[in-house]
Amino acid sequence: MVLINNKTGDIKKGKQGEAVYQLHYGKQMRRVRREKSGNVSKVQERRRGLFRQALDWRKGLNRHDRLVIEQYAYQGHFRDSEGVTLTWDRMALKIALEVPLVEVLA
Q: Is the pLDDT of residue 5 over 70?
């Protein structure tokens, strides 16, 4: 669907074939619409699966486990790469997605 005003208004909105008309910062813009590629690498599929598992794990936490994670998170000792304190849900995802460090004590 495309909405086109006359020459004095000159406003076009919507899709027409592969063209998309839209307003960007108050100015009319025409761009080409292309379908997204469906090719996903094996590594990306694996990472998506791990993220889904992490979300399911976080959703399945009982109240006590959630409170423990909240206490650690709100103490502010754990921060992201930009130095912002993690919320409990972000910290739970980080715990689920990180590879554990194993040390062998002899």
A: no
pTM of the model: 0.55
2-38 as b/e: b if 16+ CB within 10 A? eeeeeeeeeebeeeeeeebbeeeeeeeeeeeeeeeee
Bigger pLDDT: 60 vs 9: 60
* Residue type for position 103: E
Q: Give the amino acid at 87.
A: T
